[in-house]
Design brief:
Blueprint (H helix, E strand, L loop, with lengths): L3 H14 L1 H39 L3 E6 L13 E2 H10 L3 E16 L2 E10 L3 H5 L3 E4 L4 H6 L3 E4 L1 H8 L8 E4 L2 E9 L15 E5 H8 L8 E2 L1 E6 L5 H15 L10 E5 H44 L1 H9 L4 H38 L7 H27 L3 H6 L2
Parallel strand pairs: 4-9, 6-8
Antiparallel strand pairs: 1-11, 1-12, 2-10, 3-4, 3-7, 3-11, 5-8, 6-9, 7-8
Helix pairs in contact: 1-11, 2-9, 2-11, 2-12, 3-8, 9-11, 9-12, 11-12
């Protein structure tokens, strides 16, 4: 009886005789395995980015904003106001902090240096709601808010751009030609994950000051751009969202059946929806990759059937000198599995390279897990066994006499 090692050597020699055909046969497996690994790696990387974004912005906050399709009639009820924010703080349970906010883009000027940035007018609760902490100096106070003091807390990017190594505390900067005294600097928060936004490029001023000096809504006293609400926990957000919706519908005198003139959005919900979209896209790509593997398997089966036909006389000779059906079956099955395994190994290399290449487009570093690589490798070997078994069985069932007569 021929040993397994000898059968393996015969199978390898057969593949080496047709190197080009063997490589082209494995191409479908290479593409399929590479696509599976790249799809899962990019998907996991994108999900990690989204998780970090959720952690960066805070998972237990919601934003109340005016609906863009709401009709502007000049009536304050059609806009969000400070009174709406106070009503939310007083009447909605589960709320930890509320920060009515207005914002505008300005040119911040210090001496001969200027920097385009975003100014937020809000209350002392704003840093807590948005997850900022004070590094130097102090936060705006209730007194600053009531008196409309022209004071500002700046982000590190603004501090670096305007002051360099100089301490900004106590210095005067101009925002839309209005002088403000810097009373504090926020601790570094860094770029949002993926580099979509510099979270340190901002200036916070008292809401009353912003409304009177920087952002003026004609005939709309007390109007704000949005209301930031922090819940006591992630689990409270659904209840808070529902309660805010009912409260504002009542305050804005919206009749049953009429559309809201505001929207309540949870950042974590929006990012989670994005994560689901990313997961669906990854699964779609993985499905396409699996189809590529199946097509590659069909290619292997087709080539192996051709190989059986070309080597019919060789099979007859081997049977005539004592080879058994199981030896013939093993030889062709080993050839098929070897093609798949080689394709799987090359596919892993292609998948890793493709993952890093796609990272430049998705702005999310790929995450390669051992489980996904092992799964793709096992699947490629399974394709070799599954699609190689029929040609191997067909070869082993040949009649030795008929095979010897084959020309």
């Amino acid at each position: 009886m021929i040993s397994f090692i000898e059968i393996f050597r015969i199978a390898i020699r057969a593949l080496r005789r047709n190197k080009t055909r063997s490589f082209l046969t494995t191409l479908g497996i290479i593409i399929g395995v590479g696509a599976v690994i790249a799809a899962f790696a990019v998907g996991e990387g994108a999900n990690k980015v989204i998780d970090e974004q959720i952690a960066s912005f805070g998972t237990n906050s919601v934003t109340v904003m005016r609906e863009r399709n709401a009709q502007s009639t000049g009536d304050n009820a059609k806009f969000l106001t400070e009174d709406d924010a106070k009503a939310i703080a007083e009447n909605v349970s589960g709320v930890e902090a509320v920060a009515p906010t207005v914002s505008t883009s300005v040119q911040a000027i210090y001496g001969n240096t200027n920097w385009a940035t975003q100014v937020y007018g809000s209350t002392p609760e704003y840093p807590d709601v948005q997850g900022y902490t004070i590094d130097r100096g102090r936060n705006i106070s209730d007194s600053d808010q009531r008196m409309g003091n022209k004071v500002a807390v700046i982000g590190k990017t603004v501090a670096d751009k305007l002051f360099g190594r100089e301490s900004p505390l106590g210095k005067s900067i101009r925002l839309s030609k209005v002088p403000f005294t810097v009373i504090g600097v926020f601790a570094t928060k860094g770029q949002s994950t993926g580099g979509f936004m510099d979270q340190d490029d901002l200036i916070l001023v008292p809401l009353k000051t912003a409304q009177s000096r920087l952002v003026r809504y004609n005939n709309s006293p007390g109007r704000v751009g949005n209301i930031q609400v922090k819940g006591v926990s992630m689990e409270s957000l659904a209840y808070i969202t529902s309660e805010i919706t009912m409260l504002l519908r009542e305050r804005h005198k919206i009749r049953p059946g009429e559309a809201d003139d505001f929207a309540v959005r949870s950042l974590s919900q929006m990012l989670e929806a994005r994560r689901k979209t990313t997961s669906v896209t990854s699964m779609l790509l993985a499905s396409i990759a699996v189809i590529s593997l199946v097509v590659g398997g069909i290619g292997i089966m087709n080539i192996m059937l051709v190989s059986v036909t070309e080597r019919t006389r060789e099979i007859g000779i081997r049977m005539a000198v004592g080879a058994k059906a199981i030896n013939i079956r093993l030889q062709f099955l080993i050839e098929s599995v070897t093609l798949s395994v080689i394709g799987g190994v090359l596919g892993i290399c292609v998948g890793v390279a493709a993952g890093y290449s796609l990272a430049g487009i998705t702005q999310a570093p790929p995450i390669f897990s051992a489980s996904s690589i092992l799964l793709a490798f096992i699947f490629s070997a399974a394709v070799g066994i599954g699609f190689g078994y029929y040609p191997a069985a067909k070869a082993s069932l040949l009649n030795p006499i008929d095979a010897l007569k084959y020309e």
